[in-house]
Fold this protein.
Amino acid sequence: MILSSSLPSTLMEEINASSTTVDIPKNIKIISVGDFMDFIPFVKKGTVRVFIEDEETKKEQLLYYVSDGETCLMSMIASFGDRISKVSAITDTECQILKVPNSKVRTWQTDYKEWNDLILNLFLKRYWDLLDTINALSFKRIDERLYSYLKKNSPSNGSIADSRTHREIANDLGTSREVISRSLKKLQLEGKIM
């Protein structure tokens, strides 16, 4: 896990003493738009899907996935300012989440260079993920976005299309199930996927 591998043992002891670890089943919403963020959630084990949603249309748009040792950029921003969340997050697998309280985060920022390095690196990783999402939405056709999505999110032992429904993929890409079904068929005919 990123947290334990890159931080001094004294800081890890402080993190373990002041944070709460919770086990959360698959498909549970752990953060909703409007939630007050008084902690930074780190994924110790599992995968969390972070997305924006539109209340009027009931559509969602995937921003990125967060996995072992990582946290969400948008949660960090809300937590640093003791503000409300502008995104939602749902467990994609069974997860173990470490809730790091904001009050400790501020202390560690002044006491540990390694903590700042970790937060900055995670911040940059999520920032690049967001830019990739914006680029795809702005400049790529849906079949190109779908192919990139499948390549990026497929587990090594099979296709994500095998583990997720067309509706789930459509939610991630902000389109309809029918569009995903047609695009998958097109990619199959082109020989890009099986």
